Amino acid sequence: MHFSSLANDTFNSISSELRELPSVELSTLPLILKIVESGIADQLRVTELILNDQEFLRKLIDLFRICEDLENLDGLHLIFKIVRGIILLNSGQIFEKIFGDELILDIMGCLEYDPESPQAQHRKFLKELVVFKEVVPIKDPVVLSKIHQTYRINYLKDVVLPRALDEAIVGNLNSIIHSNNAVVLSLLKDDNTFIKELFARVKSPNMSREAKEDLVHFLHEFCTLSKSLQMVHQHRLFRDLASEGLFDIIADVLQSEDHNLVLIGTDILILFQILDPNILRTYVSRQEGGLLGILVKNMLTDFGNNMRCQFFEILRSLLESLSTGTQRENLVEIFYEKHLDQLIDVLTSSCLPHSSGQIGSKSVSSDGESKSQSTMKPDILLNICELLSFCVVQHSYRIKCNFLLNNVVDKVLYLTRRKEKYLVVAAVRFMKALVSRNDEHVMNHLVKNNLFKPIIDAFVANGNRYNLLNSAVLDVFEYIRKENLKVLLRYLVETFWDQLEKFETLPSIQALKVKYEQSLETVSATSTGDLMEKRKRLDERALEKEEEDYFNEGSDEEDSASANSASTKRSQTQPPASVNGSSPNGPSPKRSGGLVDYDDDEDDEDYKPPPKKTTNASDDDGGLTVLPLKRKLVSKDEIDKKRLQRPPRVLKPKEGVLASFCSTLTSAGKKLATSALNIPPPSNINQQQQQQSIEPKVEEKDLSENSETKKTTDTEETSRSCSDGLNDSTADNRPKSSSEMAVNGS
Questions:
Q1: Is residue 733 very low, low, confident or very high in pLDDT (cuts 50, 70, 90)?
Q2: What 3-state class would DSSP assign to 132?
Q3: In terms of CB atoms within 10 Å, which end of the chain has fewer, N or C?
Q4: Residue 313: is it exposed, middle or buried by C-beta count within 10 angstroms (0-12/13-18/19+)?
């Protein structure tokens, strides 16, 4: 060991001092092998020496051919190790030379002579067995070269040296493959002639089945290799393919009887779904659901593999609500109108409500096709239930019109009658999706139709077994309790507690019962508080009503008393008559600014008389009219009641007010005339004046406009008659003085 390590150190020091590689001869092959298999520290140096010697690889291939002709196995084994060591150097520049069209087949020949395994025939496989099919002729030589090179690198990586290559070398080879694919796709997608010819051949009705399969495989590989492009170029390529009619071809492929072609078409759709679902969604919405119907039909078809899950994923991607726009809305509308009933028919035909155990019974669906429960696999039913649960979560606005009205919930719960437990769990998850909407209308529908009964029956039938069904039902109970859904909480406990009571030891069931009792206490306290508050409000309203009635009654009495007092004081303080603004007895007393003077202003300073409305006296009347005081409005019934309680009063005619005023003027004129002639005034004049001044004034509020007009006319006539009477009475006794003329003129 010591001498070998010394020899290696000496060799490493010598190899680091090499300026060039030894000449390629049979005798120098061991030395070249040692140089190539040197340590990691010398790999860069060895790579540099190989790249500097442009003829090294060519000379090594020539020596390989000589040894092969001479059947020199020792030399062939050495050349195999040298070529393998050159590949393990992991140099991109060396890979370009090795995988070139000139050397690749000879390199594969060198790798056939592995001393640890029997001789392989890589060259024969690549030349004779591998057939390059051109579904559409490719005229670009660069594209052809890159395609062949990529295939050979993959063959080397996967077949020739699978155990010798480390991760770094495999990664470097994959990068070369990725780069070649990008070059090929870029050149082909820019070739408009190639794309048009490709789709023309696929759409040709005269195309044979084998040729069509080859074209579909080419499209699948073409779309798969698009991952090598940048995202922008990949989007552009997929849009170009869609515009050329790729989805029409896929729709035709999905209806093929060949399951392999159906699988290939599904893979292409998944590629579009991963990259940009809007491209596929746009096409489906424009075609009014033609492709969508094919996807739904294939999801319900048994292909003998996992393609049903792929169709389910495509449908879920098309119907998801993360995307927005009219295209998605149109697609959702098409699905609910045309295909929802189809899915429900499959459920009802596979899970008859009254004969759950009759597995071999048959029924007819809405599309006229006869379905058999024995042929419908449980996996299909599971995908249907999962898709419906997805629709409930994503399209909550569709629950009322598409799920509740058509009794879809009850039909989905038929799955609880199946013997497969995972189908029962799927039905429970569907119920959880409905409850999670927290929609009061949905919860009332569940309670009204007693739709939790199948879930409770399945839970009770499961017993104390701790399995997925038990956990799923308890999860629904926990959600109802945590979200405090009182409608469902009261419904579950009051309806099914006799069945759930034996599971009371479970924490979820116990917590559900406690939450129910707490909700009852809360409702009781709330109702009591509402009743007390209502009574309090009624008491307050009654008190306010009593106070209002009291003040209204007092206001009426005060108004009547104020009106009578004002009339009495006005009659006492008013002079007999005023001639040209002066009183015959002396200067008139000063007015206090109001219509009525009060004697007790100083004694009752806090009292504020209610405002009175004044009316401007006409020139003919020369007097003031006191209108009723304003007060708070009282209902008509109360006014009538109070009027009935008052003593009867003698009502004056409508012209009583003005007639009283004219009578006052007449008495004043007579008194003035009597004093002028030294005739004592009649004793009954003052009594008549006082009696007329204190008579109550009656105001008719409910008169119409015609009665008021008539009142005005009667008043004018009464005024004229009073003036004429005054003139006649004074004309006989004395000559007319200036003061009398003034009175008559007024």
A1: very low
A2: coil
A3: N
A4: middle
For residues 263 and 267, what is the distance between their CA atoms, to the nearest angstrom? 6
Query: pLDDT: is 87 or 529 the higher one?
Result: 87
Tokens, residue 333: 């509308």
- Rounded to an integer, what distance in angstroms lies between the CA atom of residue 4 and that of residue 34? 13
- CA angle centred on 576, ends 571 and 579, rounded to 5°: 130
Q: What's the number of CA atoms in the CB half-sphere (13 Å) around residue 154?
A: 11
Q: Which two tokens stand for residue 176?
A: 């070369």
The 10s digit of each residue's pLDDT in 649-665 is 444 444 444 444 545 55
Beta bridge partners, 582, equal 579
CA–CA gap between residue 635 and residue 643 (Å, rounded)? 13
Angle at 403 between CA 399 and CA 406, to 5 degrees: 145
Single-letter amino acid code for the residue at 382: L
* Alpha carbons 698 and 689: distance in angstroms, whole number: 18
Token reading at 425: 């769990």
For position 741, what pLDDT does the model report?
44
What whole-number distance in Å separates Cα of residue 256 and Cα of residue 266?
Answer: 12
In Å, how far are 27, 344, 441, 574, 580 from 448, measured between CA atoms?
97, 22, 10, 86, 94
SS3 417: helix
Q: How far apart are CA 462 and CA 158, in angstroms?
A: 52
> Using CA atoms, how far apart are residues 636 and 642, in angstroms rounded to an integer?
10
| pLDDT band, very low/low/confident/very high, at 302 (cuts 50, 70, 90) | confident
Mean pLDDT along residues 20-31: 89
296 close to 343: Cβ distance less than 8 angstroms: yes
Per-residue model confidence (pLDDT) at position 530: 57
Residue 465: both structure tokens together: 């077994």
Q: Is 257 helix (H, G, I), strand (E, B) or coil?
A: coil
Give the residue carrying structure tokens 């004592």.
680
The two tokens of residue 42 are 């010398």
Q: Which two tokens stand for residue 382?
A: 């599971």
Amino acid letter at 576?
P
Residue type, 30: P
Instruction: Give the mean pLDDT of 109-135.
Output: 88
Provide the residue count of the chain: 746
- What's the first-to-final CA gap in the chain, in angstroms? 157
For 501-550, write each residue's pLDDT tens digit: 999 899 999 999 999 999 888 765 565 555 566 666 666 666 566 666 66
Token readout for 376 is: 């419908």
Average pLDDT over residues 705-717: 45
For residue 425, pLDDT beyond 50: yes
Strands (E), 169-210: none
Angle, nearest 10°, between helix axes 141-155 and 167-189?
Answer: 160
Tokens at residue 658, please? 């003005």
Facing residues of 626 across strands?
A: 614
273 contacts 314 by C-beta, under 8 angstroms = yes
Q: Which residues pair with 491 in a beta bridge?
A: none
How does pLDDT run across 356-366, given as a tens digit for each residue?
443 344 444 44
Is-contact 176 95, C-beta < 8 A?
A: yes
Side chain identity at residue 509, one-letter code: I
Residue 328, pLDDT score: 75
Where do we find the tokens 């003829």? Answer: 55
Backbone angles phi, psi at 524, to 5 degrees: -65, -45
